[in-house]
Amino acid sequence: MALEVPFEGGCMCGALRYRCAEAPAMTLCCHCTDCQRRTGAAFGITVSVNTSAFSILKGETTSWLSIRQSGSKLLFQSCAVCGTRCWGDLPDIPESTLILGGTLNVAISLEPSAHIYTATKQPWVSIPDNIYEAENKPDWRKVFSS
């Protein structure tokens, strides 16, 4: 099942809502320890979209700059009311917005094309054979072409 465009999402309390008018450039599952801690789960789901197609429908955000396991910077945007992290902005790649997959209204339709940082994945997680996998820092060209 593909993600229908436009798609929307938001925080847990409903105060912050967003919309994206274009299909994602890619969807991936990240198994790094940062994503495991951030989500309290086995991995994080990231949906990369063009920043120009992304808009805030309502609400205020707070920001937190994270230096990722890879060394890259990610400016997380969270609901100012409930604190749910909804997306991140990449200071080094301003044309991309990284939506946190669990904040989508219809997250069930996500189809990851890659799994990254699998060297630290939980041992019970199985990755399909036909999906790009990187044990550590991925080849981003392969991630976006998967």
Description:
With 146 residues, the chain is mainly β. It has one domain (7-145): Alpha-Beta Complex (glutathione-dependent formaldehyde- activating enzyme (gfa)). Helices cover 9% and strands 38% of the residues. It has two helices and eleven strands; from the N terminus they run βββαββββββββα. It has helices spanning 33-39, 140-145, and strands at residues 7-10, 17-20, 26-30, 44-50, 54-58, 61-67, 73-79, 85-89, 96-100, 114-116, 132-134. An eight-stranded mixed β-sheet has the order 6-7-8-9-4-3-10-11. Strands 1-2-5 form a three-stranded antiparallel β-sheet, with no helix packed on it. A hairpin with a 6-residue loop joins β1 (7-10) and β2. The two termini are 17 Å apart. The model has no long low-confidence stretch (mean pLDDT 91).
Short key terms for the protein model shown above:
glutathione-dependent formaldehyde- activating enzyme (gfa), 9% helix, eight-stranded mixed sheet, three-stranded antiparallel sheet, mainly beta, 146 residues
